[in-house]
Amino acid sequence: MKNFSSAAFSPEVIGLMTAALEAAVATLPEPVHSAHVNALAESILRTAGTGERDPATLQRIALMELQLAPRH
């Protein structure tokens, strides 16, 4: 995971990010790979860091970024 050590979020925002991550992961087909979860989490952290607070938007952006990510 990228370095987010300088990021600071209120408990309320952490709850919104958690909800967005859980909703995003729930849409993935089984088996869910940890790399995909990490990519979703990084996207949500990055997007929330820009000020976005809507869980649906955080989820949608994370899933779009995952879809666009290069395959290894």
Question: Could you give a short description of this structure?
Answer:
The protein is mainly α and 72 residues long. It has helices at residues 11-26, 34-49, 55-68. The chain contains 3 helices and no strands.
Could you characterize what this model shows?
- By secondary structure, the chain is an all-alpha fold.
- The chain is built from three helices and no strands.
- The protein has helices at residues 11-26, 34-49, 55-68.
- Helix 1 packs antiparallel against helix 2 and helix 2 (34-49) crosses helix 3.
- The longest helix has 16 residues, at 11-26.
- The mean pLDDT is 91.
Protein traits:
72 residues, mainly alpha, 3 helices, 0% strand
Can you summarize the main beta sheet? none
Total number of strands: 0
In round numbers, the mean pLDDT is 91
User: Could you spell the SSE succession in H and E letters?
Assistant: HHH
Strand content: under 5%
Silhouette = globular
User: What is the terminal separation in angstroms?
Assistant: 16 Å
Question: What portion of residues is helical?
Answer: 55-70%
Ranges where pLDDT stays below 50 over 5 or more residues in a row are none
Our count of helices gives 3
Rg for CA atoms: 12 Å
**Derived structural class:** mainly alpha
